[in-house]
Design goal:
The complex is a heterodimer of chains A (about 110) and B (about 110). By secondary structure, chain A is mainly β. In chain A, about 0% of the residues lie in helices and about 55% in strands. Chain B has one domain (about 5-110): Sandwich (Immunoglobulin-like).
């Protein structure tokens, strides 16, 4: 059974600081996703990582994937308040239905 | 394109009542999914469908039923509502092309009292 763990669960950081969110998963997979969720809102796709060593960047967020370690990271550079949200990683399971298993999420709070 | 739409946005049910959560997508996606999100938690898969007429159970299917008569619609049925079904329900869809990103609807907040 595929398990996905994120840490930390909650992260309070000051504007301008850097930090990393970690996502570990238990079985091999060929796709890993990062989503953002604002309070009371739906999920917005941020990144799709398809292969070992993949790195994607958008603004102050950079995601990477190490399939051998079964680890993905979401790095935040010089955080701003607008990045405050909950971030989820999700891993595609085996089989053909593209089912996803989600981590429990990391609630990021960026303070002034 | 509206993407994935869900109705209602919010509903209060009494224990034992039934209801159907509606989900429609206009992207011609074959694959559709229902998730539930409990407070402070990630999403758990309830049911999914790989095409019209084909559905299968996910991780937490008990207490729910689905049908898929068209490509566009994937309703979720709660037969005998229980307090444990209080949650936010998200519908999602994707096409098995390249990235297979799932696109999510706005969610239905359900409270069972």
């Amino acid at each position: 059974e595929l398990k996905v763990e994120q840490n930390p669960l909650f992260l309070s950081m000051q504007e301008g600081k850097n930090y990393t969110i970690y996502c570990n998963y238990s079985t091999t997979s060929d796709r890993l996703y990062w989503y953002r969720q604002d309070p009371g809102k739906s999920l917005e796709s941020l990144f799709v990582l398809l292969s070992n060593g993949a790195v994607k960047q958008e603004g102050r967020l950079m995601a990477s994937l190490d399939t051998k370690a079964r680890l993905s990271t979401l790095h935040i550079t010089a955080a701003v308040h607008d990045l405050s949200a909950t971030y989820f990683c999700a891993v595609k399971g085996d089989g053909t239905a593209s089912k996803l298993t989600f981590g429990t999420g990391t609630r990021l709070q960026v303070t002034l | 394109n509206a993407g994935v739409t869900q109705t209602p946005k919010f509903r209060i049910l009494k224990i034992g009542q039934s209801m159907t959560l509606q989900c429609t997508q206009d992207m011609n996606h074959n694959y559709m999914y229902w998730y539930r999100q409990d407070p402070g938690m990630g999403l758990k898969l309830i049911y999914y469908s790989v095409g019209a007429g084909i559905t299968d159970k996910g991780e937490v299917p008990n207490g729910y039923n689905v049908s898929r008569s068209t490509t566009e619609d994937f309703p979720l049925r709660l037969e005998l509502a229980a307090p444990s079904q209080t949650s936010v329900y998200f519908c999602a869809s994707t096409q098995l092309i390249f990235q297979e990103t799932q696109y999510f609807g706005p969610g239905t907040r359900l409270l069972v009292l």
